[in-house]
Design goal:
By secondary structure, the protein is α+β, with helices and mostly antiparallel strands. Helices cover 18% and strands 34% of the residues. The strands form four sheets. Strands 3-4-6-9-8-7-10-11-5 form a nine-stranded mixed β-sheet, with no helix packed on it. The radius of gyration is 27 Å and the shape is elongated.
């Protein structure tokens, strides 16, 4: 009887051992982090947090030193062009209302563009959250630059601000360049800040037949750091997009923007300044005699003080 029980126990043990080996060989070790296509992927419910060190194939992926953000696209020193897709993962504390800002600057620190990346899953977690975003930009004559990732910091307290940079390269220009003017307010040239008084700055852009649109695109970038130090500033919100620009035979430029241009905009002075920046930038061209500004096709009730 004892031998029979021993034999049964031995058989059960052998079956369990064989099953364990088969599961392991089949990759059934689910409670762990695995490296797939250069990214850490959760399998099962690992007790350990996601590794902060690069996995094989991830050597060019940018990781913030604290391990809170992993930028998958673009990679370090990638050659980028517009529009640029930005993808990665960030801890939930980097988001506020499901997004955080990303800026692009050239090698002189001039801001070329700014956008927001958005969580593609629930962001109210301490774990990693995938994000995506798209940025349009014009590098002008710059050959290198940096993407600057910043956590969304609603408190505005410096001790809560985090940021890190990803160096990038720009595709070499394939066309000749041309000079356009953009118009901003300037509190040094106009100390009394007369709202609708704006001053021109020259910018270099790739040569194009759509020169009026190229000029307004430069205007929407705002003044560079060096220009701000000279007193130039803009009243236009960051992230504004042109939806259409048509110049008719009578010389009327009809430009349509998205809702961002009037987001939280109030006061007659600021409204006048926004209109002056856009109008004067467009009227530098002899084909433009007047300017109509609209948002989603509506012009009568927009940008009211």
């Amino acid at each position: 009887m004892a031998n029979k029980k021993l034999m049964i126990s031995l058989v059960v043990f052998v079956i369990a051992l064989v099953f364990f080996v088969i599961v392991r060989m089949a990759g059934g070790d689910e409670d762990t982090w695995l490296c797939q296509n250069g990214q850490w992927v959760r399998h099962g419910h690992p007790s350990a947090p996601q590794p902060t060190t690069p996995c094989p194939g991830q050597s060019q992926i940018a990781i913030v030193p604290e391990g809170e953000v992993i930028v998958v696209t673009p990679k370090v020193n990638d050659i980028i062009s517009s529009p640029l897709m930005i993808e990665g993962q960030a801890k939930g504390n980097w988001f506020f209302e499901a997004s955080f800002p990303v800026k692009l600057v050239d090698d002189n620190g001039n801001q070329l563009a700014q956008t927001a990346v958005w969580a593609t899953q629930d962001w109210t977690t301490a774990d990693y959250v995938p994000f995506q975003g798209e940025m349009t930009f014009s590098p002008g004559l710059a050959t290198t630059g940096k993407l600057i990732f910043q956590n969304d910091n609603p408190s505005s307290l410096p001790q809560n601000q985090k940021s890190f940079e990803v160096p990038v390269q720009f595709s070499p220009p394939t066309t000749e360049t041309m000079t356009v003017k953009v118009y901003f307010n300037n509190d040094k040239l106009d100390p009394e800040i007369s709202c609708n008084k704006v001053f021109s700055i020259e910018r270099q852009v790739p040569k194009t037949e759509a020169v009026a649109r190229a000029a307004v695109e430069e205007l929407l970038k705002g003044p560079s750091l060096a220009e701000r130090q000279q007193g130039y500033f803009t009243n236009i919100n960051p992230g504004v997009k042109i939806q259409s620009l048509i110049i008719d035979e009578q010389g009327m430029a009809k430009i349509d923007f998205d809702e961002q241009i009037q987001n939280q905009v109030g006061g007659s002075c600021r409204v006048s300044a926004i209109r002056a920046e856009i109008t004067e930038t467009l009227k530098q061209f002899p084909t433009v005699k007047s300017v109509t500004i609209s948002i989603n096709g509506e012009s009568d009730t927009i940008l009211q003080p």
